[in-house]
Amino acid sequence: MLIEINVPNFPESVADGTVVSWHKQPGDVVKRDEILVEIETDKVVFEVPAITDGVMQKILAQEGETVVSGQALTHIDPSGTGATLSTTGAKTEVSADQETAQAEIITPSARKLIAEHNLDTGSITGTGKGGRVLKEDVLRVLDETPAPSSPAKPSSAPTTAGKVIPLGNASHSSGERPEKRVPMTRLRARIAQRLVEAQHNAAILTTFNEVNMQPVMDLRQKYKDKFEKEHGVRLGFMSFFVKASIEALKQFPEVNASIDGNDIVYHGFFDIGIAVGSPRGLVVPILRNADVLSMAKIESQITDYATKAKDGTLAIEEISGGTFTITNGGIFGSLLSTPILNPPQSGILGMHKIQPRPVVENGEIVIRPMMYLALSYDHRIIDGREAVQFLVTIKELLEDPARILLDI
């Protein structure tokens, strides 16, 4: 009896998904809990595992196809022991070594590109789970490979629409103007959609300030070794900003609120989103009830989220919701920026690069490690006065971090 493998049940906020990559092929021997296929939604990537040992049958949804909850993806024959039906129905012997080498190490889409361009698999470093070679890994190698020299083509020669052309270090002396066209991922498309919606649906303004980071840096330097030894996680700057933001949100609850139709919803909890970069795009995992989390717990969760974002294993519930967001462009070198709201939230705090600058203290010019802060806010429910005072509160708390620890 064949066992049907279906698309997982998506949350209500996710309508459908796209088949990204099959890790197994018809005729492959599979083990229970082995990943068969990855499905990308506009929020996360779902991994669909085998629910029993057996031999995988025909693929019912090819890479790039759109699928919905419960849709059949393939079948597994539990009675198979190494021979199975291929897509044409013929039986093929498959060894365990062949299965590991071909199905687990190189994904089908990557294998196809390797064959098309006659690439050496040994020169490709896999970035997928367990060192799997992904399609993106092959494309990266193609981009880094110099284009072979060839006679100049007439400028009127047609190009192939949609073809991925390796850019590499192609010489422009021959008149070539290389391009590369790749489809936008569902996550990237969703990010674009949400950012445009935020610009259209909210009255976004940004206010700026700067903070002297010396007190936080001194405190961190003094206790970072003991902190890491005691809690098993590094003491970063983000936990200070989370704690300072929560105290400011308590004083200015409208920044923690959101608009629902003609109503303003004031949230009596503090779910802080932390913007994290991932290979698939920006994601914002949520620190639930951050007001009751210790600094060690905040740092631990952020580290865990960063790892999951890199591996593409964030769950829907980990990136859903949130009442306020913090984003740190400073880790990429940004000196100043205007962050965009994360709807339906009404405020987002932007951190930036810490840079020594001359400032005036007690009538004297001194050098201090300064950071520009930016607060983008929805002017429909937050007035300029509250926004400025909110940001000043964060500044004052960071410049006297003992207040954060003493809750004063």
Structure, described:
This protein is an alpha+beta fold and 408 residues long. It folds into two domains: 3-104, Beta Barrel (OB fold (Dihydrolipoamide Acetyltransferase, E2P)), CATH 2.40.50.100; 187-406, Chloramphenicol Acetyltransferase (2-Layer Sandwich). The chain is 28% helix and 24% strand. The chain has nine helices and 21 strands. Strands 11, 14, 17, 18, 19, 20 and 21 form a seven-stranded mixed sheet that branches.
What can be said about this structure in brief?
With 408 residues, the chain is α+β, with helices and mostly antiparallel strands. Helices cover 28% and strands 24% of the residues. It is built from nine helices and 21 strands.
List its salient traits:
single chain; 408 residues; alpha+beta; OB fold (Dihydrolipoamide Acetyltransferase, E2P); Chloramphenicol Acetyltransferase; 7-stranded mixed sheet; 4-stranded antiparallel sheet; 9 helices; elongated
Count of discrete domains: 2
CATH homologous superfamily heading of the largest domain: Chloramphenicol acetyltransferase-like domain
What's the count of strands? Answer: 21
Count of discrete alpha- or pi-helical segments spanning 4 or more residues: 9
CATH topology of the largest domain: Chloramphenicol Acetyltransferase
End-to-end distance: 67 Å
